[in-house]
Amino acid sequence: MQEEEALIRRAQERDPVALTQLYEENFDRIYRYIVLKIGDRTEAEDMTQQVFLKVLQSISSYKWKGMPFSSWLYRIAHNQIVDYLRKKSRRATVPLDDSFVDGGGNPTHQAERKLQIEEIAIAARKLTKAQQEVISLRFAGELSIAEVSQAMGKSIGAVKALQHSAIAALRRVLAAGVEP
Predict the structure, then answer these.
(1) Residue 140: its pLDDT value, please?
(2) Contacts of 30 (CB under 8 A, 6+ apart)
(3) Which domain holds residue 115?
(4) Structural domain count, the chain
(5) Got the DSSP string for 148-166?
(6) At 100, is the pLDDT very low, low, confident or very high (cuts 50, 70, 90)?
(7) What was the pLDDT predicted at 138?
(8) For residue 66, is it within any domain?
């Protein structure tokens, strides 16, 4: 944590090496989180860049509170997603694409994996927005419970309860069979 705090201080002083390191350490996770939420890889790339532009513009006002820096990034990404979805709310959503399917290996395995991912995506739509958010942050964003707590502005206990109920609900939906 002290290393991250020192890195952030350097970034706040506009140290290009520190800014680059923060970008490189966090870009892929933020991108995966956004693409999972919106389903459009090209748009997700643009939005991820916008997240990091906002970080660059406002890093000087960032206050270290002992929580991982990524929590702040996910909050910015979440707000970008909310704005994007609000603007797009009247248009049809884009289906989950092949970006999550492993590119190599057995074609049968790839088809089965794609089907499983699609089933989970369809089942996840039946969760509450909060449950979807927890699942996205925990598994697509690879955040810890504490980081999700910070990003969502909820207590650790609330995040654990949401995650538990989301997984239980997903199991129920998947056991019953999903319909598109």
Answers:
(1) 74
(2) 48, 51, 52, 73, 74, 77, 141
(3) 106-180
(4) 2
(5) HHHHHT--HHHHHHHHHHH
(6) very low
(7) 83
(8) yes
86 and 117 part of one domain: no
Residues 84 and 116 in one domain: no
Q: Is the pTM of this model over 0.70?
A: no
pLDDT at 180: 47
Contacts of 156 (CB under 8 A, 6+ apart): 145, 146, 149
Residue type, position 129, single letter: K
Per-residue burial over 72-94, b = 16 or more CB atoms within 10 Å of its CB, e = otherwise: bbbebbbebbeebeeeeeeeeee
In the predicted model, what is the mean pLDDT of the chain?
82
The Cα 178–Cα 119 span in angstroms is: 7
Which two three-digit tokens encode residue 12?
């706040």
For 24-47, give the secondary structure using H, E and C.
HHHHHHHHHHHHHHHCCHHHHHHH
Burial (Cβ within 10 Å: 0-12, 13-18, ≥19) of residue 103 = exposed
